[in-house]
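Justification of resources, computational component.

The compute hours requested in this renewal are based largely on the per-chain cost of generating structure records like the one below. Each record pairs the submitted sequence with a full structure-token output. That output is archived, and it is also reused by downstream analysis tasks.
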Amino acid sequence: MVKQIIEEGYNITWHGVNQYAKGGADVYKQHVMHALLDTGYTSTFYGELYKKLFARGDQTKGIRNDLNERKKKH
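The structure output for this chain reads:
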């Protein structure tokens, strides 16, 4: 998930996200959102950026759809 967001052009790092996971084995959406908050991409956890990146049920939105569309073009 972090790699996909970075590939979308968001300037975050795995280290920046992982610091919010407190050394745990799992990274969750809220850890990613915290890193995006820190880097100024959003001012809220569950606002428009969250919906854009983590859209559920709507296959025309979200990072997976964006990456799939790019692959089709290449």
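The mean pLDDT is 80. The helical segments are 2-7, 14-18, 29-38, 48-53, 63-73.
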